């Protein structure tokens, strides 16, 4: 089998891969992407960000319809979950068509549906649509992503996962009366929020004492009381097994406070995390892998200077937009002759929990500052005084900005409540730009928009 010479091969075609692939192909490089799905955008579009938020925004519309029914709107519209799923599928199909058109417009870029395996540090064998092919690669980007982690729990096969909920043509197409979610990370809590808004009773079982472990406790404490009353959170729960009933229902057996108990549900969802997908043959290359994934620094290079690892597979910041930025860092460093010219920032990446309401954070927050013995000065703005929040009856939550003492340079923030996901991006730009409380206070943000609160939070210091 003769090896095909390529300048770049990406293992994966998601956010950690295709931005670099397009950048190098447009610069004249011969580029091949290899992905088992054979489509671009990875798990974000297939079973993650986009489909889950299509469900979320539809659920938010139902909540608004309930809230403003007293203004003379028709009686409450019963959610049609099958229609919600059809909308989600339509969004996914629209974006897949968009990506296919983008790919077709770049002549030196090929996407192979297949599985890649390392032969050596420069050789990759692909078992794909044309049988087996071998490539000799000047550069390689490992961007194979992550997959749902299913623990060795007796009866785990009786549960659904986020894959089953959000993939195209998903397994679940009917709204369950009672949903049990095992796991209180962002996937579990978001899913609980969506289904509760649509009408399900949701019980969320969390092993630890806090949902959203790893997030700032102050932000979590603000968020949890604002979640829909149909969500019942149970902390300190050790799930032992799942069981099916003759009627097709599910029983979750668990222990709490030393006592055994069980809970019945129509559907159980396992949401206990994700794990990196490591390419075959990687273990023969001497590349360091830890429990989070492939070990890399801000230049995204592995121990082989021509091999990069971007996105979820390195576990540094497992978010799609972080993967895109990392992919571009790798592209810039490849174009620079594998000499680091660009670096990823693993700290100042906006992170939004898309619950209803949402919460978002970035940078150095109080919990992180305390662990690093860093002092912070805090600015506050409560949405109870915000005009947009009043208009939309979403007055819960607040903006908190965190500054360096003395210089008052902005170093972090969190937002709970209205427009959190939008606001954290504007705040992130201010952090990246090195802006201070004085700079934020001077900017005339639009009225009546929730972004006014950023300047007002800064002015709370003066």
UniProtKB/TrEMBL annotation:
Give the cofactor note text.
Binds 1 FAD per subunit.
Keyword Nucleotide-binding in record: yes
The protein's matches in SUPFAM superfamilies, at most eight in alphabetical order, are given as: FAD/NAD(P)-binding domain, FAD/NAD-linked reductases, dimerisation (C-terminal) domain
Per the record's keyword annotation, is Flavoprotein included, yes or no?
Answer: yes
- What are the binding positions for NAD(+) in this chain? 183-190, 273
Q: Which sites bind FAD?
A: 53, 312
Cysteine disulfide links: 44-49
Q: Which residues form the Pyridine nucleotide-disulphide oxidoreductase dimerisation domain?
A: 349-457
Q: Which residues form the FAD/NAD(P)-binding domain?
A: 7-326
User: Which residues constitute the catalytic centre?
Assistant: 447
Cofactors (names): FAD
What InterPro entries has UniProt attached to this entry?
FAD/NAD-bd_sf, FAD/NAD-binding_dom, FAD/NAD-linked_Rdtase_dimer_sf, Pyr_nuc-diS_OxRdtase, Pyr_nucl-diS_OxRdtase_dimer
Q: Which UniProt keywords apply?
A: FAD, Flavoprotein, NAD, Nucleotide-binding
Query: Which GO MF terms does the UniProt record name?
Result: flavin adenine dinucleotide binding; NAD(P)H dehydrogenase (quinone) activity
Similarity remark: Belongs to the class-I pyridine nucleotide-disulfide oxidoreductase family.
Task: Tell me the protein's name.
Answer: Dihydrolipoyl dehydrogenase
**Organism name:** Acidithiobacillus caldus
Source species taxonomy: Bacteria, Pseudomonadati, Pseudomonadota, Acidithiobacillia, Acidithiobacillales
């Amino acid at each position: 089998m003769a090896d095909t010479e390529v300048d770049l091969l990406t293992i994966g075609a998601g956010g950690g891969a295709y931005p670099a692939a397009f950048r190098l192909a447009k610069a004249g490089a011969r580029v091949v992407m290899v992905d088992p799905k054979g489509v671009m955008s990875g798990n974000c579009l297939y079973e993650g960000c986009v489909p889950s938020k299509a469900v979320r925004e539809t659920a938010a519309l139902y909540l608004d319809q309930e809230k403003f029914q007293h203004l003379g709107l028709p009686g409450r519209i019963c959610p049609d979950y099958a229609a919600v799923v059809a909308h989600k599928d339509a969004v996914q199909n629209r974006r897949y068509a968009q990506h296919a058109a983008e790919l077709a417009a770049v002549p030196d870029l090929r996407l192979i549906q297949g599985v890649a395996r390392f032969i050596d540090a420069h050789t990759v064998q692909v078992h794909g649509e044309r049988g087996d092919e071998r490539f000799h690669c000047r550069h390689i980007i490992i961007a194979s992503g992550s997959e749902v982690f299913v623990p060795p729990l007796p009866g785990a096969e009786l549960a659904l996962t986020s894959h089953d909920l959000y993939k195209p043509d998903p397994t679940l197409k009917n709204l369950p009366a009672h949903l049990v979610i095992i796991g209180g990370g962002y996937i579990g809590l978001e899913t609980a929020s969506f289904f509760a808004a649509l009408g399900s009773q949701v019980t969320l079982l969390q092993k630890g004492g806090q949902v959203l472990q790893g997030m700032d406790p102050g932000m979590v404490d603000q968020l949890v009381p604002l979640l829909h009353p149909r969500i019942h959170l149970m902390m300190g729960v050790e799930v032992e097994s799942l069981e099916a009933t003759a009627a097709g229902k599910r029983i979750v057996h668990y222990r709490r406070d030393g006592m055994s108990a069980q809970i019945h549900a129509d559907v159980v969802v396992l949401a206990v995390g994700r794990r990196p997908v490591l390419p075959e043959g990687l273990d023969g290359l001497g590349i360091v892998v830890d429990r989070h994934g492939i070990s890399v620094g801000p230049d995204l290079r592995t121990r082989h200077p021509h091999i990069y690892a971007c996105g979820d597979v390195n576990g540094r910041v497992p978010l799609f937009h972080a993967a895109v930025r990392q992919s571009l860092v790798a592209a810039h460093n490849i174009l620079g002759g594998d000499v680091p010219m660009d670096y990823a920032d693993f700290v100042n990446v906006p992170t939004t929990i898309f619950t209803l309401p949402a919460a978002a954070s970035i940078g150095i927050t109080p919990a992180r500052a305390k662990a690093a013995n860093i002092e912070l000065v805090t600015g506050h703005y409560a949405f109870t005084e915000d005009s947009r929040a009043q208009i939309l009856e979403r007055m819960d939550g607040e903006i908190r900005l965190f500054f360096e003492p003395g210089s008052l340079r902005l170093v972090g923030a969190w937002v709970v409540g209205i427009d959190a996901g939008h606001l954290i991006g504007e705040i992130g730009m201010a952090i990246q730009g090195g802006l201070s409380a004085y700079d934020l206070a001077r900017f005339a943000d639009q009225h009546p928009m929730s972004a006014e609160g950023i300047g007002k939070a800064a002015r709370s210091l003066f």
